[in-house]
Amino acid sequence: MDEARYLKNVWYVAGWSSELAPGDKVARTFLEQPVVLWRSSDGAVHALADRCIHRAMPLSAGPVDGNVIRCPYHGLEYGPDGKCVKIPAQDKVPSSARVRAYPIVERQGLIWIWMGEHDQAETASVPDYPIHDDPKYAWRSAHYPVNGNWQLLVDNLMDLSHLPYIHANTIGGNPELHFKTKTESEKLPNGVRVTRYMPDSVPPPTYVDAGGFTGRVDRWQEIEFEPVLIRIHTGACDAGTGAYEGLREHGFSMRGFHGITPETATTTHYFWSMATNKLNDGMPDEVFEQTARTFKEDQDVLELQQLRMSEDPTGTMIDIASDVGGRHTRQFIARRLREEATATIAA
Amino acid sequence: MDEARYLKNVWYVAGWSSELAPGDKVARTFLEQPVVLWRSSDGAVHALADRCIHRAMPLSAGPVDGNVIRCPYHGLEYGPDGKCVKIPAQDKVPSSARVRAYPIVERQGLIWIWMGEHDQAETASVPDYPIHDDPKYAWRSAHYPVNGNWQLLVDNLMDLSHLPYIHANTIGGNPELHFKTKTESEKLPNGVRVTRYMPDSVPPPTYVDAGGFTGRVDRWQEIEFEPVLIRIHTGACDAGTGAYEGLREHGFSMRGFHGITPETATTTHYFWSMATNKLNDGMPDEVFEQTARTFKEDQDVLELQQLRMSEDPTGTMIDIASDVGGRHTRQFIARRLREEATATIAA
Amino acid sequence: MDEARYLKNVWYVAGWSSELAPGDKVARTFLEQPVVLWRSSDGAVHALADRCIHRAMPLSAGPVDGNVIRCPYHGLEYGPDGKCVKIPAQDKVPSSARVRAYPIVERQGLIWIWMGEHDQAETASVPDYPIHDDPKYAWRSAHYPVNGNWQLLVDNLMDLSHLPYIHANTIGGNPELHFKTKTESEKLPNGVRVTRYMPDSVPPPTYVDAGGFTGRVDRWQEIEFEPVLIRIHTGACDAGTGAYEGLREHGFSMRGFHGITPETATTTHYFWSMATNKLNDGMPDEVFEQTARTFKEDQDVLELQQLRMSEDPTGTMIDIASDVGGRHTRQFIARRLREEATATIAA
């Protein structure tokens, strides 16, 4: 694995809308570039290189003042487009005085950032996640720092065969049940989809509690990768009521959103949300906390994995049968990385 | 900025006299060289390379015993001149058994060290700071570790236009007032002087409290760099009573001493004292604590600045109008560094 | 000193038998190689490379299950010989699926590991330490992490002239007494022996308390190095009763075992035990605690020494008179390192 490579021309999750009220700012590193995210008084979110042009001071240490952010050291002020608009004690601001501004789109509770070439940023290509706006769903979100390369987190989520091992104490369940279930992996134009169906099966207790099932169910796990996020839809309907033909509105659904944004070659921002329908009073604390505990278990695993891989980056690794979805995703990512590299050379 | 370069043939502050009673020692690194400072029973301060010739043990971990310092591992003893004077269980001590001794001068409450070529150390060239011995002044001192290159601290002190931003909650004051004040920067034979005068102005509350002013005042800020320390004299006299002609004895004076000693390329010893006249009962705790808090704010800024500069050492930086004093000082230092480099080659 | 070199074809202490009950495992790094030590349900101890062949996950994070250890991520199982015996959801396990297994011998309370070439591991060459099995002795053990190169710990133990300095507050005693005692160093076929005799001397208080002496004694200190452990036998008999002719059963004996296993170039596993005879009720807490405190003092010294040596690895070091035993040991180790290097080239 070439850890130091990132997809550049994609929209990455930079944060949650709920993190930034007007006047707030936060420092984050994406793809090894320090960025300050801030929301101006007019409500818009902006992203600038987090380094003042004067003396390299992080702008994120300074205050947002109306529609500018001010360097805390000598008071230089920057607008949303990165242009310096004020240098104290100096009449003119040279036009070269600016920091890089990164395109930002905010929708469906998510703040998306474009770290690639500016002229290729198209708002239309921002990934869609209508669940966050759907009144039938209750959802909550979190931001986890992960001490591992971003592709390790992709691997983790594209291959749920780790559930009975890593998550034995949370959502794991019986290993045998997991391995009897056939896994289908399908290449998509812009990603990979992994599907596992468990027709006419006994519903797990959480499903019974939340979904009100009284008999056997048709269960599904659908995992869909596109660069660089993963949507996981799991759930069940009463057996034979059309779940596999797309009739699922009457069933119980859990929908996980997993935004995966590289911070450095060995650290990753993990922005996740969990949504479920059939919950009239919002998401109960216990469901959120169990999900949070589960993803914390993954976080610990990735850290240990990264440790060994950093100690010996050239150590061999072998694939096993359950890797099919992960392998397709690795292949997809490798191809996209090559395409970006070629495009850069041609340009 | 070439971080890894230091001025060698200058006297640096190594510590405060008050830090070392007879029999005390302290380990400090100056210009990347580990040094043990110790005071023998005869009252003199000495500085030796902090590494025993036998097995590299730091001498600073051992005791001072009369006029020797003893290695704590196998008991080798060293005199003030670095000569090993005792090797246990061995009759003769070879004359080659010695560690480097650094010239030390102690005066006016300060311990000065010479890290350069031994034969160029002249006691007469130790910087003078009579304020510490002047009974008209009360003063207190501190030693701050700064996680930043030494030149960042020089920049900070030579350009007080950061006061209204970094120190808004302590000594800052109104930004507009600061920028209306004309700054003069003057090159000296051995440094740079920056002067700011505020004639016939309203005195700030602290000045009124301490200086007893009832009307308008003539204020001054005088900042003087010589390698490698900065003296800052601020104060006020009743307007029109001769402050700008040098008649200041009747006024209120605050005198800051700022000894700046590189530890490594990215860390610096900051030895500062604050002295004021007109204080019959010594320096009040609140004045000292406000000063300490102010310099702590600078410490935090330099650390953030260094962080960004270490991440991207080649990132560009631009100068602004208020940098005139800092720029002169940078130029002075760059010239002295070149001169030292040339002298080394010629030697 | 070439820190990065280790003796490979020797038995190293990997741990204490008492550390691992059936089903337990522990992660340890030896000679820069991460290893998992585990005890299967049949009571045997095993050592495997601590990195799953699938995705580099440390096996030590997984459970021991009967006679296999299971990767906690995707459930691959490994037997004592390092062969993967199960890959979930996969019918066949390829024969290439295996991790390195290290030879292990467990005897006399010690777990020994062979980090060298597999076919040169001979059980007969495991160092003997019958004291641990001798009912006349009571003993207790510990495992100290030392932040220093392994040869620094060897130096420390082969030259006890540091006792009056480092251990002045514990077992130190009078420096003059130490230096009047003649030290003999003898080269052995597989190591070095240092001997110090103190005939007809006044016994120290601890000896009087534990040994019940009423008059003068014949004392001895015998330190024996073989790669890579040190046995230290100290004790006394009533004067003139044959201690120096080998008649010591009636006397008081303290026997230190010092297993020295490199972890990395700058860190070392220190496995030590202390045994004494003449103690009917086992080793008293105070004797063990004083010993532990003493070795903690050594640990601190080695860390400081390593710090200086890492800062300047090429700095010179000189030998002194009391280094004779340490110098012989250094020479022995250097020769063995050369022999191993030559054998590797010839092979």
What would you say this structure looks like, in words?
The structure is a homotrimer of 347-residue chains. The first copy, chain A, is an alpha+beta fold and 347 residues long. Chain A folds into two domains: 11-125, Rieske Iron-sulfur Protein, CATH 2.102.10.10; 131-343, Naphthalene 1,2-dioxygenase Alpha Subunit, Chain A, domain 1 (Alpha-Beta Complex), CATH 3.90.380. Chain A is built from six helices and 18 strands. Chain A has helices at residues 150-158, 163-166, 175-180, 205-211, 285-311, 324-346, and strands spanning 11-16, 25-30, 33-39, 45-49, 64-65, 68-70, 77-78, 84-86, 101-102, 104-107, 110-114, 138-146, 183-188, 191-201, 217-226, 229-238, 252-264, 267-276. A seven-stranded antiparallel β-sheet of chain A has the order 12-18-17-16-15-14-13. Chain A has a four-stranded antiparallel β-sheet with strand order 2-3-4-9, with no helix packed on it. Chain A has a four-stranded antiparallel β-sheet with strand order 5-6-7-8, with no helix packed on it. In chain A, strand 10 and strand 11 (110-114) form a beta hairpin. In chain A, helix 1 packs antiparallel against helix 6. Chain A is globular. The interface between A and B is medium-sized, with 25 and 26 residues.
